[in-house]
Amino acid sequence: MGNPTESSASSKKSTEVENDADFRVHVFSSSSELLEKLHERWSSVEKLPYPAMYSSIYGGIILDPAMMVIPIDDHMVHRGHGVFDTAIILNGYLYELDVHLDRFLRSASKAKISSPFSKSTLRSILIQLTAASKCKKGTLRYWLSAGPGDFLLSSSGCPTSAFYAVVIDQEFSQCKEGVKAVTSSVPMKPPLFATMKNVNYLPNVLSIMEAEEKGAFAAIWVDEAGYIAEGPHVNVAFITQEKELIIPSFDNILRGCTAKRLLELAPKLVDQGLLKGVTNKNLTVEEAKASAEMMFVGSTLPVLPIIAWDDQPIGDGRVGELTMKLSDLLWDDMVAGPDTQRIAVPYV
């Protein structure tokens, strides 16, 4: 007699093969049947996470989540030839939309993608989209793609670039609890790709997954020269023992809009005698880990205190007072900053 375990495994494998052979793929006979199937997916959702989308392929704003799709032959999908950016919606205002749009268009230029619209038209589309969404708090994310056309490497067969945008209903608040960070073992992107906000985010994905597996919020990249770079979706900042705020140089990393705004606002704490200085320069790992305070800086945070890095406490291992004062500066700017930073959305 044969081994019962082997017999059982063989029987199971045989059943799987038989089931696979019996499997039949449904063929949708009409677009209405397909749309009905797509609507089934959203029928049980109490609150739609994506209240509105814009597509230049459709030529307008879509409110039906079942229709929020992009073509499979879009080069952003199968070749990663696309760039994106994000703006915050807070209390019915768009925060720093213009500086994000400027970075968006710089990224597009580096990626050799021409926008189908001028900056002012893109701005108008995004404001109208936010208004149509009726979302008062969340994020506005937008992409510029080489466009649909074929499945080749070159985008020369794409008739025109494509612009997409989605409003994401997202809850966020000022971060006051400290988190842990780790050093990433995933190779960081070379400067050409790191300095443009493009959709090739696999290194970022693997980096943050590595951090989560280690019980940390995010990982931090260190470049080949031993200088601090950035996190997978955030910048990092440090307060030295001498009370100087340092944000790593943007030469080889993404020029974070929130980090730049922090550099503009932080001198207020210098004027108050709380900080000794504010600078944007390279920092070694040894210098960084000897800091009194450390933080992540990003749009939806806007400042997130870091209390430990690679299981080593930063400072006294508690949320720093200066970190929270910097957080207050940015949060107040988001809530009640000048008109140059905040655009009132014309909801109807």
Automatic annotation (TrEMBL):
The keyword Zinc does not apply. Its cofactor is pyridoxal 5'-phosphate. GO terms for biological process: amino acid biosynthetic process; folic acid biosynthetic process. GO terms for molecular function: 4-amino-4-deoxychorismate lyase activity; pyridoxal phosphate binding. Pfam families: Aminotran_4. InterPro entries: Aminodeoxychorismate_lyase_IV, Aminotrans_IV, Aminotransferase-like, BCAT-like_C, BCAT-like_N, Class-IV_PLP-Dep_Aminotrnsfr. Pathway: Cofactor biosynthesis; tetrahydrofolate biosynthesis; 4-aminobenzoate from chorismate: step 2/2. It catalyses: 4-amino-4-deoxychorismate = 4-aminobenzoate + pyruvate + H(+). Its EC number is 4.1.3.38. CDD domains: ADCL_like. Keywords: Folate biosynthesis, Lyase, Pyridoxal phosphate. Signal peptide: none annotated. Homodimer. Belongs to the class-IV pyridoxal-phosphate-dependent aminotransferase family. This is aminodeoxychorismate lyase. It comes from Lotus japonicus. The lineage of its organism: Eukaryota, Viridiplantae, Streptophyta, Embryophyta, Tracheophyta.
